[in-house]
Design brief:
heterodimer, A: alpha/beta, nine-stranded mixed beta sheet, B: nine-stranded mixed beta sheet, 14 strands, about 20% helix
C-alpha cells in the first residue's frame, strides 16, 4: 500500500507521515516528492527545517528545478524585514494566493516539511481548519506533511491524524537499512484498510518494499451477501431461450378466465369485507334484546 | 347485519373495523408511548439500540455516541437516525463542521420495505406476470389487481423502527420529501462576540440556529393546535473536535474548558421544552481529561460508546472474530422516575451487517481445541459441557 500512496493512484487527500527520533521520515518524504515530480505534477514545498542547499543533495537536479521551494527555514517568525515565508502565512487566504499562479491544469501537491513550527505557533483549531480546507478545496490535490509524533502532545498528534486520509507511521526495522511502515488509509466510502510493510531505499530514492504487506483491513460491509448471481455455475439450466420464452407465454394457465368473467369477479371485489345476510324464513331473528326484561 | 361504515382517512381499508382513538394523546407518526414509563419515544433507526435504551429515544432527550477511532460506525448510526426521520416524516436538523450536511444526506441508506403488491421493477412477481408490465395485466395473480397497493415509503411508518440496506442509497424522491435544516460551520457567518460567555462562537451560533428552527417550526408548542404536530430530529456530528474551534481534543487544559458542557446544558434545556431529540457524536478517544468526559456524559441523557476493533490488535483475536467492535452503555436516562431499566448484560458487541446493525451479548465462542478436557460418557448426560462439540476428533469415545 505504501507504493500505491507514493504513486499517487489513490487520488490525493491529506497524507501524514509520522516519524520519531528513532527513525526520520525525511527520506520517505523526499521519495514522495521525487515520484510526484516524475509524474510531472506541480509540487510546492514549505521547508521549515531544511536549507535549500541540503535539499539539493537529496533530490535529482532535474527534479529540483521544477520544484517550487518556499524558504521557511530562514526566518519562520518574521523577525527581519521581508521574510520569504513565515509560519503565520499558513492560513487559507495566503496559501491560496501562493498556489494559484501555477498552471491550473496540472495537479498540485503541497508538501509541508514539518508541522512542528506550525503547531507550536498557531492555535490547533486554525491549523485544523486550514488542513480541512486544503483537503476539501480544489486548488491542491494532495497535501503531504511530516509530523514528528514525539515532539507534540499526543492529543495534538491524534487530532491531526484524525483529519488525515492516510497516515504512515514509521519505526526502525530490525536491519539497519530497513524500516517498517504502518499505513492506514481511509477510503471515501469509509472503509479503513491498513498494511504493515518493510521497505528500504534504492539509489534513485525510490522505495523498495521488502516483504508482503500484512493486509489486516476488511471491508466494512459483508461482502459475502453482495449480489452474487445464483444462476451462474450450475449444472442445470435456469435460463430461458427465446423459443422457450414464447412457448411459456402461449401456455394456457389453469385459472385464466375470459375477460368478462374476470371483470365480473374483480369488480365485485374491492372494499367488501361486508357480510350481507338476508334472514331466511326459518331463522328466528328477533331484533329485540332478549335480556331486556332482566332486572339487575 | 354489518352496516357499511364510511372509513375516515384512507379509503382503502380492507376491513371496516376502526380503532377508537383517544384524542387526549397526541399522535405523531413515527412515535409511540413507551411501555415502561409512558414517555413518547421514537426509534433511533437501529432496532437493537432501541432495545438497549429502553424501547427508543424519548422525545426531549439527548443521545451521546462516543465515536470509534476512525468515526466509521458512529457516523453510520447517525445516518440511520436521519434515515429513520425521513421515513417517519419527521423534520431533520443536521449540523457538521467536517462534511456538508447535504453530502451526508445523500449517503443515507435505503430502507427495506416489504411491499406485497408494489409495482416496483425489483419484485420478481412482476416478471411472472409477463413482459407487458402494465397495470391491468397481471396474468396469474389477477385477483389481486384491484386490491389497493401497499402504501409508499412514507406511509409505511406505522411500523416502529425500520431496517436499512447500507449497500444502497436512499432514493432522492423519498429523501426530498423530508424537510431538512442544515448547519455547516465553514459556511455559517460567525460574528465574534465580545461577551464574556463561556461558549465559543461556533457553539453559540449552533445553539441559536437550533433555537430559531424550533421556534419557526412550531416544535415548542407555540404554533396553533390546528397544525399537525411533528418532531424534530437533530443530528450533530463530531462535536468537540478541533474543526468546531474547540481545543478540548488537543490540550489537557483547554482554553475554553466549559464551552462544550455549557452548550450541552443549553441544548438539553431547548430540547426539554420542545418536541425534539438530538443525537450527537463526540470523538472521545481524543479527549484525555476524564473529568470533562464524565461531565459531558452526565449532561446527556443517554450515552453509549463504540469501540471498533479495526486498527487495534484485537482484530485478530479469535474471541472477537464475529464482531466489529464493542459497545459500552455509559448512561441510561431516568425520566420522571426513580429507577431505570438497565440492560442485563454489560458486555455487548456490535456487528454491522449489510441489512442490520446488530448489538449482541458478547459470549465466548466454543473452545474447540484439543487440550480441553473431555467429560467421560457417563457424566455427560445432556448437561451443557464446556463447549465440546461432537465434531472434533476424540477417538476414545467412539465405540458403538
Amino acid at each position: 500500500m505504501l507504493l500505491e500512496l507514493i504513486q499517487g493512484t489513490e487520488g490525493g487527500g491529506l497524507i501524514i507521515i509520522q516519524d520519531s527520533i528513532n527513525y526520520s521520515g525525511r527520506h520517505l518524504l523526499m521519495s514522495f516528492i521525487n515520484a510526484a515530480l516524475k509524474r510531472d505534477e506541480v509540487v510546492h514545498l514549505l521547508a521549515f527545517e531544511l536549507h535549500e542547499e541540503d535539499l539539493k543533495h537529496e533530490l535529482d537536479h532535474s527534479c529540483f528545478q521544477r520544484l517550487t521551494f518556499h524558504n521557511a527555514f530562514q526566518d519562520p517568525l518574521g523577525w527581519n524585514e521581508q521574510p520569504p515565508f513565515t509560519v503565520h502565512q499558513f492560513i487559507t487566504k495566503e496559501l491560496d494566493s501562493l498556489l494559484t499562479p501555477t498552471h491550473l491544469s496540472k495537479p498540485v501537491t503541497l508538501v509541508i516539511d514539518s508541522f512542528s513550527w506550525i503547531l507550536r505557533h498557531l492555535s490547533p483549531p486554525s491549523v485544523c481548519k486550514t488542513l480541512q480546507r486544503l483537503k476539501k478545496g480544489g486548488a491542491v490535490k494532495t497535501t503531504l506533511g511530516l509530523l514528528h509524533s514525539d515532539m507534540h502532545h499526543r492529543n495534538m498528534v491524534g487530532s491531526i491524524c484524525h483529519l488525515a486520509t492516510s497516515v504512515v507511521t514509521l519505526v526502525p526495522g530490525h536491519q539497519c537499512h530497513e524500516a517498517v511502515a504502518k499505513t492506514i488509509r481511509r477510503a471515501k466510502s469509509g472503509t479503513i484498510s491498513q498494511a504493515e510493510e518493510r521497505f528500504s531505499f534504492n539509489e534513485d530514492m525510490s522505495v523498495k518494499v521488502q516483504s508482503q504487506p500484512i493486509q489486516v483491513g476488511a471491508p466494512q460491509t459483508d461482502a459475502g451477501d453482495a449480489e452474487v448471481d445464483p444462476t451462474a455455475n450450475l449444472t442445470f439450466n435456469l435460463r430461458l431461450s427465446h423459443q422457450e420464452r414464447k412457448a411459456k407465454e402461449k401456455l394456457a394457465l389453469p385459472f385464466v378466465f375470459s375477460k368478462e368473467k374476470k371483470s365480473a369477479l374483480l369488480h365485485s371485489g374491492p372494499g367488501s369485507g361486508r357480510i350481507l345476510y338476508e334472514p331466511d324464513a326459518n331463522d328466528d331473528y328477533d331484533q329485540e334484546d332478549p335480556d331486556d326484561d332482566l332486572d339487575i | 347485519m354489518a352496516a357499511p361504515m364510511k372509513s375516515v382517512g384512507s379509503s382503502f381499508n380492507a376491513t371496516s373495523f376502526q380503532k377508537k382513538t383517544r384524542s387526549k394523546l397526541i399522535s405523531i407518526p413515527g412515535t409511540r408511548p413507551s411501555v415502561q414509563n409512558g414517555q413518547l419515544i421514537v426509534s433511533t433507526g437501529v432496532t437493537s439500540l432501541d432495545y438497549l435504551i429502553g424501547g427508543g429515544l424519548a422525545v426531549g432527550t439527548v443521545l451521546l455516541i462516543e465515536e470509534d477511532r476512525y468515526n466509521s460506525y458512529s457516523h453510520m448510526v447517525l445516518k440511520y437516525f436521519m434515515a429513520e426521520g425521513v421515513l417517519c416524516g419527521h423534520e431533520l436538523f443536521l449540523a457538521s463542521a467536517q462534511d456538508h450536511p447535504d453530502d451526508i444526506l445523500q449517503e443515507l441508506p435505503a430502507p427495506i420495505l416489504d411491499d406485497i403488491a408494489s409495482h416496483s421493477p425489483l419484485e420478481g412477481r412482476m416478471q411472472l406476470g409477463g413482459q407487458h408490465a402494465s397495470q391491468d395485466a397481471m396474468k396469474i395473480a389477477w385477483r389481486y389487481q384491484n386490491l389497493p397497493k401497499v402504501q409508499t415509503a412514507l406511509a409505511s411508518s406505522s411500523r416502529f423502527g425500520h431496517y436499512y440496506d447500507i449497500s444502497k442509497k436512499m432514493e432522492p424522491e423519498i429523501r426530498q420529501a423530508a424537510n431538512c435544516y442544515a448547519f455547516y460551520l465553514p459556511e455559517h457567518p460567525t460574528e465574534s462576540s465580545a461577551t464574556r460567555s463561556p461558549l465559543i462562537e461556533s457553539y453559540s451560533a449552533l445553539l441559536q440556529s437550533i433555537q430559531e428552527v424550533i421556534r419557526k417550526g412550531g416544535f415548542d408548542g407555540a404554533a396553533p393546535p390546528s397544525k399537525s404536530r411533528n418532531v424534530l430530529r437533530i443530528g450533530l456530528q463530531s462535536l468537540g473536535s478541533t474543526l468546531w474551534g474547540d481545543d478540548l481534543c488537543c490540550r489537557d487544559n483547554p482554553a475554553h474548558g466549559h464551552a462544550l458542557t455549557t452548550f450541552l446544558y443549553g441544548l438539553r434545556a431547548l430540547l426539554r421544552s420542545s418536541l425534539s431529540m438530538a443525537v450527537l457524536t463526540i470523538p472521545s478517544h481524543l479527549i484525555q481529561n476524564r473529568a470533562v468526559m464524565g461531565n459531558i456524559i452526565r449532561l446527556c441523557d443517554n450515552a453509549i460508546a463504540l469501540e471498533s476493533f479495526k486498527g487495534s490488535d484485537r482484530e485478530t483475536n479469535p474471541l472477537y472474530k464475529d464482531y466489529h467492535g464493542l459497545l459500552h452503555v455509559r448512561q441510561v436516562p431516568r425520566l420522571n422516575c426513580l429507577l431505570t431499566e438497565l440492560p442485563d448484560h454489560k458486555d455487548l458487541a456490535f456487528k454491522l451487517k449489510r441489512k442490520q446493525f446488530t448489538i449482541e451479548r458478547l459470549h465466548l465462542p466454543p473452545d474447540l481445541s484439543e487440550t480441553v478436557s473431555r467429560v467421560s460418557r457417563g457424566e455427560l448426560a445432556g448437561a451443557a459441557a464446556v463447549g465440546t462439540t461432537c465434531g472434533t476428533s476424540s477417538n476414545k469415545h467412539l465405540d458403538f
